[in-house]
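=== Structure Prediction Worksheet ===
Name of assembly: unnamed complex
Input type: mixed (protein and possibly other molecules)
Chain count: two
Listed entries:
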Amino acid sequence: GAGVSQSPRYKVAKRGQDVALRCDPISGHVSLFWYQQALGQGPEFLTYFQNEAQLDKSGLPSDRFFAERPEGSVSTLKIQRTQQEDSAVYLCASRYQAGGTEAFFGQGTRLTVV
Amino acid sequence: QKEVEQNSGPLSVPEGAIASLNCTYSDRVSQSFFWYRQYSGKSPELIMSIYSNGDKEDGRFTAQLNKASQYVSLLIRDSQPSDSATYLCAVRDDYKLSFGAGTTVTVRA
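=== Predicted Assembly ===
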């Protein structure tokens, strides 16, 4: 596609519900990142994939967060047993190479846990 | 986790004036620095990247980097109402970006 596509754009979840957020990166982009952006803050790194390999998951806030990219293209961020503090915008970004080039961001998924 | 600090906003400037944004970072080995613009409800958009000490100009934008002082800045000349947005400073460590909290700029017509 022309850009990074994320779905859904908005998600309201009841506390305790599981959610799955999808990211469709730019075709051919090797690197994929997930970031969490709380209101009024900058994006915070969650996890990084190079192709299908998850090379860094140090930013995932708890074991309720899980990300995968099984075929090296589309990625899913799953949050189990959502809590109110999970409410944020979840941004996906992709980059053609592992480093040295611009990362392009998707529009994000705004998650609200009620 | 690297720390990236930006001058607190919001910053309000009249149309046609210069907007000056500042950013400091804590990791001396950082090599790549970026400014992103984020409109409300939209995704961050890269507007400037800088890798070596000195100034880099692109249209109305000038980025300045001083690695000894661990300081990077962004100047927006001839500010326009369309420049009203949040500006995020980002530092790259190998593959991932660390962002500041952002400075919100409002350009008054």
